[in-house]
Recover the amino acids of this structure.
C-alpha cells in the first residue's frame, strides 16, 4: 500500500488541510459467514477545486470506496474495520445518520452510472430537482422552480422551460445525466463524487458531459472524485490519479506523470490494454456469405381506439449489406441508430422487408421453422455476458445446446468431446464446464458465449457489442480471440459496436449508421483516416480525443 | 465484488461444490441455508412432516381391528384383510373385533395385537358410558368409564386402548381417530389439489407469457370470465346431480383453483422472454417448447414454489369450509369441517369444537410458517449475516 502525497508543493495558494482526507480506509463485506475485504487500506486526499480520479477494473473496490464516503453501503453487511474519512476535519465514518443526511446532497453529492435507474421514474424533472432544494434549503415552490430552471440552463439543457414537466423516460440518456448533474449541483456542493458518470452514454454525449463537468467545476470551484475504468477520461479530467486493484491503491501521482512514466506493473498493464492489431487483409474475391438489399425494419405506431397505424418507426430504412467469408463488416452508430436491429433482421430474428441472401439462398421468405436448419451456420454473440447465459444451466449444457439441436445423432461422449474442444479453443479450462455461469468473470462469460456460437462451426457470426460490457484489458483479449477464430475458421463477422477503437481493430469494411440510415460506408481505413461526413467526424473526435463538437450534427 | 482481474482464465476452485448427481448449485445451497436460518419455519416443517408421516400411518394408530392376530396357528392381518366372521364362528360378513364373543374366541385360540387406539374414524363406540357426544374419558372416574361394559371395571375391554381420549362426537365415534384421519385426508386433498392446479396454472401462465399478443389477450379475458363464475353455487348444483366424493370434489375445485398461479407465472415469462439468453437460444434454433421448459421455467419456479404453501393452505380451508357447510365429502368420511359443524351444533360439548379448532389452526399455522421460510429462502435480497 502506498501513502498518497498531498500536493503541498502546489503554488496555487490553497491552505494545507485537504477538503476530504481518506486514511487507511477498509471495507469488509460479510455474507453467509464468508468475509470479503473489498477495500484494504486506501488513503488519498482531495483538495478544494481539484479532481482526483480512482481508476481500476471492475471489482477493484473503487466504487465501494466512493460509496463509503457518504456511508451509502449496505450496512450492516458492510463494515469498516479500520480507517477514517475526514471531511473538513469531521470523521464521516463516525458520524450519525442525522449528520450524514445534512452532508449528503448538500456538501457532498453524487452522480451515478445509470441515469435511468437513479432518477425516480414517477417524478417530473421539476419535482426531482426541487426536492433537494426544498429539503436542504427550505425553498418555496416558486423559488425552487426558478433555481431549477437556472440549474437546467447551467447543465445546458435545451429549452429548460419545456423540460420541467418531463418524466425521465421522455429524456435521452444524455439529458437524464444532465438532470442528474443538475441535481448534484443544486446546492453548490464542495465535493462531487462521479461514479462512472459517462459509461452508459454514447461517445459524443460522453464528450459533452465531460466538457460540462469540467466547465462547471471551473465555475463553481468544487472538488471532484472521479471513478472510472476509462483511462482516456482520466487523462482528460483528473489532476491526480490513484490506480486501484484488488482493494488497494498500487500507484498514485499527478496525471501527467502517471501516463508518461508509470511505475507499477499494473498501471503499465492498464495503459497498454487498448484493443490493438489489425483485421486480416481484405479480399474482394472471397465468396459472399451474406447480402441484403434495401433492408427495412419498420415498427408501426398505433394510435386511437381502433389501433390504426398512424406512422412507422423506421429502425432500419433501406440498407445494403455485404459480408464476405473471412472478413468483418463493422457497423458503427450511437444507441438507437438501428445497428442491432439491422443485425437481428439479417439473421431473421425479427421480421423485415428486403432481400436477404445467405450462402446463395434467399432466406427472407422462409418461415421460422424453415430457418432452423440455417441457424447452424449463423450465430450471435450478445453484448451482456451476464444476461446471455442462462444462470441455471451448467456451462457444459449451455455450450452443448446447439449441438443437441443440429447434431442430434452425436453420442453424449462425442458431445462432451466437442464441448471440451470448443472451450479450449476460446481459452477456457475444459474442467470449468461443470460449473454455473455466475462463477465466472465477465470476460470468461463472454468466452463461454463465443464457445456456444463456435461449437456449431458457423459461417457467419453477428457480434453485438461483444466487448462493451468488459474491462479494457479484457476487451483486448476478446478482440484477439475473435480475430484468431476468424483466421482459423474463415468466419464472416458482422461486428456491431459503438466503440470505434474495437471496430478499428477488427473490421475490413465499416458502415456508419444513424437513425436507421447509412451515413457513410466504405473500407475501414478510408473511414477512420479520412471521414467525409460531419457526423462521422464528430464521432471520431469524441471517440478518440473525447472532444465534444458543438453544433447541429450531434444530439444531446 | 465478484469479478476479479481476467487474466487468469481458470476461476479459482475454492468455492467449488462437491460433485455427484445430488450436488446443489451454490444458489440452492444459499437458499437451503436461508431456510434453515428461519428457525420457526424450519421447526414447523419438521413438526408438520412428523405429523403428516404419522397420519399416513393412521390405520396402524387408530383402527377398529387388530394389526396382527394369531388364530388356531394361522397368522392373520385383519388390518389389511377383511376376514368374514364365520372364520371365528360368527355370522357377519365382516368381523367386528370389538364383539366380546369374537375377542374371547381369538384369545382362546391365539393372540392379537391392537393399535394404540382401537377405533377407526367411522367406528361407533357401542360401550360409551353416557349418551353421545360423550366426554373425554379422562374427565370420568374409572367406574363411570367402565359402566357400559358387561363386567364393569373388571372388563378386559376397559383398557387404555378403548379410551375416547377426546370424547366422541354425536354419532358415538372417537374424536381422536376422526382427527387423525381428517388431518390426513385434508393434507392429501390439499397436496393433490395444489400439485394439479400448479401444473395446469404453470402451463397456462407459461403459454400466455411466452407467446404474448393475442394468445395472452384472449386467455386473460377467458380467465377473468372463468374466475367470476360463482364456485359455491356451481358446487351446489353439481352436488345435487352427482354425489360428491373425494375425486369429484377435487375435480370441481381444480376447475377454478388453477387460476391462482397463472398471473405470477405469466408475469415471469413475460419478463423472461426478453432476456438475452432466450434470444441466444432462439438464435441457436431451439424450439419454443424447449425454451419454455428448459430456459424459462426455472425462473418461474421460484415464484411458484413461494406461492405453493399458501395455495396448499387455501385448498385445505376450502375443503374444510365445504365440509362445514355440508357440501363436502360424503357423510361418514373423516372430515375436520364436519367436526366443526358438530361443535357448532353441540355447544355444550366443548371438546368437539375445541379439538377441531386446534387441529385446523395448528395445521394451517405450521404451513404458513413453512411458507414464510420458503419465501425468505428464495428472496435474493434477504441477507443473514
Amino acid at each position: 500500500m502506498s501513502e498518497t502525497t498531498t500536493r503541498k508543493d502546489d503554488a496555487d495558494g490553497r491552505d494545507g488541510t485537504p477538503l476530504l482526507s481518506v486514511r487507511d480506509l477498509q471495507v469488509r463485506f460479510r455474507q453467509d459467514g464468508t468475509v470479503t475485504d473489498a477495500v484494504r487500506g486506501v488513503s488519498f486526499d482531495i483538495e478544494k477545486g481539484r479532481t482526483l480520479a480512482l481508476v481500476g477494473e471492475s471489482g477493484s473496490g473503487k466504487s465501494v470506496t466512493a460509496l463509503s464516503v457518504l456511508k451509502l453501503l449496505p450496512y450492516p453487511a458492510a463494515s469498516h474495520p479500520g480507517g477514517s474519512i475526514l471531511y473538513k476535519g469531521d470523521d464521516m465514518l463516525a458520524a450519525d445518520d442525522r449528520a450524514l443526511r445534512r452532508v449528503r446532497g448538500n456538501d457532498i453529492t453524487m452522480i451515478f452510472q445509470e441515469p435511468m435507474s437513479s432518477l425516480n421514474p414517477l417524478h417530473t424533472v421539476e419535482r426531482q430537482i426541487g426536492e433537494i432544494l426544498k429539503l436542504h434549503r427550505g425553498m418555496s415552490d416558486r423559488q425552487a422552480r426558478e433555481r431549477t430552471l437556472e440549474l437546467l440552463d447551467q447543465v445546458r439543457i435545451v429549452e429548460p422551460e419545456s423540460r420541467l414537466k418531463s418524466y425521465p423516460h421522455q429524456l435521452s440518456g444524455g439529458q437524464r445525466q444532465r438532470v442528474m448533474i443538475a441535481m448534484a449541483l443544486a446546492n453548490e456542493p464542495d465535493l462531487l463524487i462521479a461514479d462512472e458518470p459517462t459509461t452508459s452514454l454514447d461517445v459524443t454525449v460522453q464528450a459533452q458531459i465531460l466538457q460540462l463537468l469540467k466547465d462547471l467545476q471551473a465555475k463553481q470551484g468544487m472538488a471532484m472524485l472521479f471513478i472510472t475504468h476509462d483511462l482516456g477520461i482520466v487523462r482528460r479530467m483528473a489532476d491526480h490519479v490513484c490506480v486501484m486493484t484488488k482493494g488497494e491503491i498500487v500507484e498514485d501521482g499527478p496525471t501527467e506523470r502517471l501516463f508518461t512514466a508509470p511505475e507499477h506493473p499494473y498501471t503499465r498493464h492498464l495503459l497498454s490494454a487498448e484493443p490493438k492489431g489489425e483485421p486480416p487483409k481484405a479480399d474482394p474475391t472471397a465468396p459472399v456469405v451474406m447480402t441484403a438489399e434495401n433492408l427495412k425494419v419498420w415498427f408501426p405506431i398505433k394510435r386511437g381506439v381502433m389501433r390504426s397505424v398512424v406512422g412507422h418507426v423506421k429502425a432500419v430504412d433501406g440498407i445494403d449489406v455485404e459480408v464476405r467469408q473471412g472478413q468483418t463488416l463493422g457497423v458503427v452508430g450511437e444507441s438507437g441508430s438501428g445497428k442491432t436491429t439491422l443485425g437481428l433482421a439479417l439473421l431473421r430474428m425479427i421480421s423485415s422487408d428486403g432481400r436477404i441472401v445467405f450462402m446463395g439462398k434467399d432466406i427472407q421468405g422462409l418461415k421460422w421453422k424453415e430457418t432452423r436448419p440455417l441457424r447452424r451456420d449463423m450465430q450471435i454473440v450478445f453484448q451482456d455476458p451476464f444476461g446471455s447465459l442462462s444462470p441455471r444451466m451448467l456451462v457444459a449444457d449451455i455450450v452443448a445446446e446447439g449441438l443437441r439441436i443440429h447434431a442430434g445423432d452425436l453420442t453424449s461422449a462425442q458431445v462432451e468431446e466437442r464441448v471440451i474442444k470448443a472451450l479450449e479453443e476460446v481459452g477456457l479450462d475444459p474442467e470449468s464446464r461443470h460449473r454455473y455461469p455466475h462463477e465466472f468473470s465477465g470476460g470468461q462469460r463472454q468466452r463461454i458465449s463465443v464457445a456456444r456460437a463456435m461449437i456449431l462451426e458457423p459461417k457467419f457470426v453477428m457480434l453485438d457489442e461483444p466487448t462493451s460490457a468488459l474491462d479494457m484489458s479484457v476487451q483486448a483479449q476478446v478482440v484477439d480471440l475473435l480475430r484468431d477464430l476468424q483466421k482459423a475458421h474463415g468466419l464472416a463477422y458482422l461486428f456491431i459496436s459503438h466503440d470505434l477503437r474495437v471496430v478499428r481493430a477488427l473490421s475490413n469494411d465499416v458502415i456508419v449508421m444513424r437513425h436507421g440510415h447509412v451515413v457513410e460506408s466504405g473500407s475501414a481505413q478510408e473511414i477512420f483516416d479520412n471521414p467525409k461526413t460531419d457526423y462521422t467526424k464528430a464521432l471520431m473526435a469524441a471517440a478518440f480525443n473525447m472532444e465534444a463538437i458543438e453544433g447541429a450534427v450531434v444530439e444531446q | 465484488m465478484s469479478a476479479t482481474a481476467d487474466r487468469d482464465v481458470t476461476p479459482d476452485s475454492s468455492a467449488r461444490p462437491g460433485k455427484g448427481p445430488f450436488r446443489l448449485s451454490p444458489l440452492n445451497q444459499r437458499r437451503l441455508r436461508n431456510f434453515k436460518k428461519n428457525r420457526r419455519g424450519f421447526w414447523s416443517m419438521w413438526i408438520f412432516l412428523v405429523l403428516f408421516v404419522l397420519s399416513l400411518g393412521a390405520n396402524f394408530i387408530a383402527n377398529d381391528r387388530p394389526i396382527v392376530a394369531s388364530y388356531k396357528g394361522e397368522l392373520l392381518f385383519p388390518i389389511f384383510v377383511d376376514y368374514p366372521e364365520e372364520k371365528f364362528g360368527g355370522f357377519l360378513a365382516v368381523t367386528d373385533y370389538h364383539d366380546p364373543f369374537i375377542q374371547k374366541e381369538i384369545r382362546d385360540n391365539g393372540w392379537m395385537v391392537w393399535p394404540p387406539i382401537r377405533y377407526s374414524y367411522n367406528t361407533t363406540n357401542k360401550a360409551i358410558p353416557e349418551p353421545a357426544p360423550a366426554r373425554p374419558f379422562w374427565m370420568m372416574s374409572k367406574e363411570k368409564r367402565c359402566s357400559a361394559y358387561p363386567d364393569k371395571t373388571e372388563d378386559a375391554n376397559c383398557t387404555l386402548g378403548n379410551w375416547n381420549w377426546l370424547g366422541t362426537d354425536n354419532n358415538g365415534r372417537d374424536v381422536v381417530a376422526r382427527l387423525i384421519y381428517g388431518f390426513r385426508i385434508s393434507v392429501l386433498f390439499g397436496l393433490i389439489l395444489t400439485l394439479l392446479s400448479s401444473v395446469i396454472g404453470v402451463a397456462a401462465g407459461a403459454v400466455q407469457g411466452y407467446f404474448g399478443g393475442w394468445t395472452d389477450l384472449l386467455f386473460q379475458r377467458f380467465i377473468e370470465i372463468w374466475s367470476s363464475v360463482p364456485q359455491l353455487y356451481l358446487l351446489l348444483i353439481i352436488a345435487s346431480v352427482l354425489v360428491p366424493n373425494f375425486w369429484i370434489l377435487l375435480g370441481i375445485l381444480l376447475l377454478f383453483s388453477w387460476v391462482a398461479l397463472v398471473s405470477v407465472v405469466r408475469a415471469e415469462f413475460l419478463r423472461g422472454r426478453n432476456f438475452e439468453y432466450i434470444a441466444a437460444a432462439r438464435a441457436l434454433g431451439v424450439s419454443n417448447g424447449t425454451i419454455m421448459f428448459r430456459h424459462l421455467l426455472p425462473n418461474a419456479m421460484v415464484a411458484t414454489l413461494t406461492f405453493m404453501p399458501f395455495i396448499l393452505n387455501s385448498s385445505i380451508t376450502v375443503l374444510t369450509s365445504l365440509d362445514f357447510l355440508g357440501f363436502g365429502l360424503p357423510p361418514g368420511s373423516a372430515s375436520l369441517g364436519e367436526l366443526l359443524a358438530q361443535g357448532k351444533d353441540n355447544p355444550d360439548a366443548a371438546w368437539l369444537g375445541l379439538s377441531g379448532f386446534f387441529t385446523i389452526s395448528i395445521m394451517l399455522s405450521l404451513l404458513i410458517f413453512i411458507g414464510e421460510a420458503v419465501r425468505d429462502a428464495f428472496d435474493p435480497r434477504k441477507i443473514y449475516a
Remarks:
- Chain A touches chain B through 64 residues (CB under 8 Å).
